[in-house]
Amino acid sequence: MTLRTKLAVAFALFAAVPLAAALVPVSRALARALASEHAARLDGAAAALQGELDRLGDDAAAAVRDLARAPELEAFARERDAGLLPPAEAAGRAGEWMTSRGLDVLALVDADGRVVSSGHLPGRAGDVDPELGGLLATAPAGRAVPRLVSRAGPEGVAPVLAVVAWTPAPAAPALRVVGGLALGAERAERLAALTGGEVAIRGADGAVLAEAGAPGAEGSRLWRRLARVFGGLGAARRTFPVGPPEAPIARVDVSVASEGLVRAGATVVLAFLAALGLGTAAAAAVGTLLAARVTRPLEALRAGAARVAGGDLGAHVEVRAAGEVGELVRAFNAMTQDLVAGRAKLAQAERIAAWREVARRLAHEIKNPLTPIAMSVETLRDAHAKGRADFPEIFDEGTQAIGEEVRRLKRIVDEFSRFARLPAPEKEPVAAEDLVAAVLALFPAPPPGVEVRREIAPGLPAVLADRDQVLQVLLNLVRNALDAMPAGGTLRLAARRAGDAVAFEVADSGAGVPAEDLDRVFEPYFTTKEGGTGLGLAIARRIAEEHGGALEVASREGEGATFTLTLPVAAGAGVAAKA
Fold first, then answer.
1. Which of 217, 265, 420, 519 is most exposed by smallest CB count within 10 Å?
2. What is the per-residue pLDDT for 533?
3. Alpha carbons 493 and 572: distance in angstroms, whole number
4. EC number(s) for this protein (predicted)?
5. What domain range includes position 23?
6. Nearest C-alpha neighbor of 249 from the set 328, 165, 161, 327
């Protein structure tokens, strides 16, 4: 372990130990606070449940009283007493009233407990209902009480917990109106929403009558573990008996999850840990600074060697040192410079090989559109064989589309093939002035609104280049510049001395190249022009590099772009330039 590391560790421990010791009491106090909040939430859920049961009871009693005084019930009793109401029609009348008043349980019962009409259990009409009979005998009129009631449903008759009330009909003293609201699946969902947890309605035997709440309300495995950390927090459960305290007929189980509380506690603890981490890091930084002056030269050499091992062959150690360590630093920097030069040559060779492979692959891939062309030909043959009357129109449209597609594919394939099989340049001395003049000769009359400026520095030496390939590069740059100025502007073609090379500049006053695209303009297949292949500038840079030169771009949006082609000067000042 190095001295710098030892000091950093010592300072980090000095800061971390007190903070870590404070973590235990802080977490315990937080756990107690969260447990208290959890209990409060469970009490709130109990109050919400009781309030909902009371509300259902009031609604059921009000609906029963309203029906008992309704004119339709008076008419029903009058028709039944007069013998004008068939038994089958009388048996189904309660179902209509139950639906219209939003009740889940409704029956008309005579004085001896026999069902006259039932909406929740139509088959019970004409029989004595022991469930309703017991209600009439024990519960006061007009007061809603919980009862287990059998109710017909899609899956047959099943018991359901309901809040039921009864009242005599003023216009028909012989009839009793019994109605209520059931705690089925829908109201269990409402109870779950009110309590914020899971609700299960069970009978006296423990059988589930209805349940609701998001499955897995206790949270994920991670949060359950965190709940145990914070004092055993979990999905607490409380049971509420329904009915007489001495003999409940059912019970409601309410579970309130604590995931939100656990998240809050975890957030506080994580913030505490973050402070612990920041304090430790700050202490370690102070220790590192104290040892920096002693270990800096050797650490810099170690870091430089690691960068070289990681692939950064151009790593350069910027540190002052004397004696043997200084000699070692200078030798290291000289070694990395040699590595960079060798890597540049290797990278250029690899890039050229990669471009060729990509071009071959893409040339192979674009053969795929030939399939729909073949299908079009088959369509024409089929139409001709069947002698269709509209064959001339089909033939004209099909052949035009095929011809256009074939020409487009041929142009793309030719350009990609030229990119893949670009011949090695045949270099010879070429006058820089002649190259500029040859390019401008191809544009004797510039497009409307475009001003062409020719700026040639005097006494330029000849460049060593393949004349045709360099003209191809300059011509491509000039065309791109003109495309960038559809509404007109200034095109500048210049040549100047740049050390042991000649720099050719093609500048336009167009919209410029977006900053995010500057690093990609020379990538194969990258283009912003509709219908472009994205190989023009890639081929141009490859030609420049194979000449031992470079092609670069500088641009600001709204101020145009400048492409600079740099070519090496031909050896020997007296070599004649070839036009």
1. 519
2. 61
3. 26
4. 2.7.13.3
5. 3-58+192-274
6. 161
Give the residue with greater pLDDT, 495 vs 367.
495
Are 550 and 452 in a shared domain?
yes
Mean pLDDT within 260-282: 69
Q: Which two tokens stand for residue 154?
A: 């899609």
Average pLDDT of span 496-516: 91
| Length of the chain (residues) | 579
Which residue do the tokens 């006296």 mark? 204
Q: Does residue 493 contact residue 454 with C-beta atoms inside 8 Å?
A: yes
Residue with tokens 């059998």: 150
Mean pLDDT, rounded, for 34-42: 72
Count of the separate structural domains present in the chain: 4
Greatest CA separation for the chain: 136
Phi/psi at 503 (nearest 5 deg)? Answer: -105, 125
The single-letter DSSP state of residue 445 is S
537-567, pLDDT tens digit by residue?
Answer: 888 888 899 899 999 999 988 889 999 999 9
Task: Indicate whether 34 and 76 sit together in one domain.
Answer: no
Residues 196 and 54 both lie in one domain: yes
d(CA 202, CA 206): 5
CA dihedral over 284, 290, 296, 299, signed as positive or negative: negative
> 378-382: long-range contacts at Cβ-Cβ below 8 A with a sequence spacing of 24 or more?
none
The verdict on 530 and 446 lying in the same domain is: yes
Ramachandran class of 102: left when φ > 0, alpha when ψ lies in -120 to 50, beta otherwise: left
Helix (H, G, I), strand (E, B) or coil at 154: coil
What CA–CA distances, in Å, run from 453 to 69, 72, 436? Answer: 103, 101, 11
The residue that leads in pLDDT, 44 or 392, is: 392
Instruction: For residues 178 and 199, state if they share a domain.
Output: no
Query: Residue 113, SS3?
Result: coil
Do 244 and 389 fall within a single domain?
no
Three-state DSSP class for residue 573: coil
Answer yes or no: are the C-beta atoms of 501 and 567 closer than 8 Å: yes
In 300-326, which positions are buried (b, 16+ CB within 10 angstroms) versus exposed (e)? bbeebeebbeeeebebebeeebeeeee
* Tens-place pLDDT, residues 142-191: 888 888 888 888 888 888 889 999 999 887 878 899 999 988 888 888 88
Asked whether the beta carbons of 450 and 489 are under 8 A apart, the reply is: yes
Least confident residue range of 141-150, 155-164, 257-266, 436-445: 257-266
- Letter for the amino acid at 526? F
Q: 252 and 212 in contact (C-beta within 8 Å)? A: no
Q: Is 107 helix (H, G, I), strand (E, B) or coil?
A: strand
| End residue of a domain, out of 274, 294, 327 | 274
